[in-house]
Amino acid sequence: MMRMSGVGVDVKKLVAALTLDEKVGLLSGSDFWHTKAVERLGLPWIMVTDGPHGLRRQEEGVDHVGLAQSVSATCFPPACATGSSFDVRLLAEIGEAIGKEALDQGVSVVLGPGVNIKRSPLCGRNFEYFSEDPWVSGKLAAAWIAGVQSRGVGCSLKHFAANSQEFCRMVSDSVVDERALREIYLTAFEIAVKQAQPWTVMCSYNLINGLYASDNKELLTSILRDEWGFEGLVVSDWGAVNDRVAGVSAGLDLEMPSSGGFHDAAILEALCEGRLAEEELDRACERIVALVLRALAVNDALVCDYAAHHALARRAAAASCVLLKNEEAVLPLDAGRSVAVIGAFARQPRYQGTGSSKVNPQQLDTAWAELAALGFDLHFEPGYSLARFAQPDDALINDAVALAKACDVALVFAGLPDEYESEGFDRPSLDLPAAHQRLIEAVAAVNSKTVVILSLGAPVTTPWADRVSGLLVSYLGGEAGGGGVVDILTGRSCPSGRLAETWPRALADTPAHPWYPGVDKTYADKDAEYRESVFVGYRYYDTVGIEPAWPFGFGLSYTSFAYSDLRLSATEYAGGELAVSFTLRNTGVCAGAEVVQLYVGRDEVAEGGESGVYRAKRELRAFDKIYLEPGESTRVELKLDERAFAYYNAPHRSWAREGGSYLIALGSSSRDLRLEARVLVAGDGLEEALGDLRQRAAAYFDLTATPLIVPDEQFEALLGRPLQRDAARARRYDQNTILGDIRHKLIGRVMIRQIRAQATSMLEGQEMEGLMDAVIYETPLRSMVMMSGGAFTAGMMHALIDLLNGRLIAGLRGLLKRDKQ
């Protein structure tokens, strides 16, 4: 096949030259990682691959489900870490490095970044997302995308949208009010699309208010394209397509992976019957062809410096560490002291999450080796076993305690092993493993200079925190995380990470807890009710007044900063841009970086009376990371636009502004505000359209009850419709039935046993057991057709559905036909 150059090709003419079968075929992948080629016209395939924090490119033909070992690449810190960097420039650097490696490995589109909101700290995939705040998520994602795409490699912004849990993620229904959807769950996508124009956007698995994301024209066309101006291609998450014909009409262009011809036949039938217009088919083909040609136009002659990328990964790991406690300046370490290094993670680190984003690193640094290289007087005890779900081992703990007693300082490396958090399942609690928790408590009891280093992808409870001198959260540091942590511990780098998510004291304090991941938390209940509405993370804690363990935006430094001389470009605001400036000074003895945070909220004291708009006490509207030498000062300017003062008015289906006095607050966390000013904002009066919502949804206006209690009728007032839980449970078996629904039936048990045996063989040697269970129990039948590599056909699926619904003759007849289409 003669390969096109991608330059100067007329997309519409090329699509017009395709046959109908070629057009239909182009709408799905040729396999797990490639688009389809059209050899007759010289249009080649392109490769896409996972890569939110590094490439996961598989060798050809390794397996058909995309989970086998991959080609080595730089494993950068995942988003749970880099989100805490609050550093858009750093994210752009990482993105550019990943773009270079993609070119080096022949990858045209990198599947990332993920900007789903951390609605609950229990979400098993939180390690892949940046923040509980949409502004932080959107800004960092836009920078990462710009970096990758600066090298002529595309990105896939995911998972669009309202996909904030792993439990039954392929069939769960995110029941969310329009205002929360717009303000919290879509805003990060909006920022990234408008500022960076990713080549592709990936739709999520889940339903949103009763409609699958892959079928949702409002989401994929009206909002994404018409409102935000998205110019690229929409691709499905792998196996996410519910109704391929409806998806094409809705704006879902490319289905991944291959459907094995199953959906091709459905599209052709719909075209013949007039249920799908050929113009809609052409539109999707044009976007796919445009993507391929865009990738072909890249000049890929470059030298990829993996050593330089490893150094960048180390710098990123250090910049993402969050120092939560440092009593009596226990850190940085004194080189003259003996150090007990305790915890198996010091030598065998957990440095990334498990699942589709798991990178095969170029190399792997450990904290133990990095400390040893600096000449410290080191001594080691593992303290706990790394066996799956290992229980406390008294002998290991006793050995660690004896070592801690004998040394000046004890460094305890602990956290969450792979089996505790992963793509595919959510955590059941916020607790550390008992083996880790008991070790920390035992060591702290005998050494007053105990420092805990936590490796994890999400917050945990820390009931032992008042008994340790130091606490450093490294999150998941990537392949150079060991070096990054040691740079912080030894003072080579000054801590500058800040929490991009609130760390609660208890699970019961989290706003979504009563309804996460579902009301009943069983397979019978697949509705994810977002009853907390806009009160996610610090928006809830700060409004209600709940004291977290550590607030959003918090993080200590080895230096200190002073804020002064706050000025606004105007004291009245009616639209346009408002500039906020102040002086920041490094008042400490070492160079460091401060994450300055600008919050906006209604001035409750000045306004007094009742508002028709429920809202958080304050919301982050701008931030920057400023590096200063000791004694250096600089003038910092942050800018606010109309969205800084806006709320989404659901009845009007538009952004609106409530008039009155607003507080502009600057500080180093949502609870540490150093400077304040007021601005009088002109309103538009649209809050009158909300009517008597204050009476019909009183819980949202008076957040005094903890945990948050929202009766059905009040949540329905926000939704504008009745809840449909009972109807969902009464549903008959269909293509969206999961094996978990039929696990007690004979045919279900047989299928589960066969799939488990195949998956175990395929993933031999990989720690993916929890993900494997989720895939087996929570994948719908339709997705099994896509992901089985032909072992489970569409005909077999329909026959199985007939059998499950009591249509025995039809089911048996279908199985005997062994339909391969």
Defining traits:
821 residues; alpha/beta; 6-stranded mixed sheet; 26 helices; globular
How would you summarize this macromolecular structure in one to three sentences?
By secondary structure, the chain is an alpha/beta fold. 31% of the residues lie in helices and 17% in strands. α5 (134-149) links the parallel β3 (109-111) and β4 (154-160).
Structural account:
It contains 26 helices and 27 strands. It is of the alpha/beta class. The strands form 7 sheets. Strands 10-16-15-14-11-13 form a 6-stranded mixed β-sheet, with helices on both faces. The longest helix is centred in the middle third of the chain and has 19 residues, at 278-296. The chain is globular and about 75 Å long.
General form: globular
Helical/strand content category: alpha/beta
Using only CA atoms, what is the Rg?
Answer: 27 Å
Helical segment tally?
26
Strand fraction equals 15-25%
Q: Portion of residues in helices?
A: 25-40%
Low-confidence stretches: none
In spatial order, strands of the major sheet run 10-16-15-14-11-13
Main β-sheet, in a few words? 6 strands, mixed
Counting DSSP E segments of at least 2 residues, the number of strands comes to 27
Q: Name the average pLDDT.
A: 92
Instruction: Report the span from N to C terminus.
Output: 28 Å
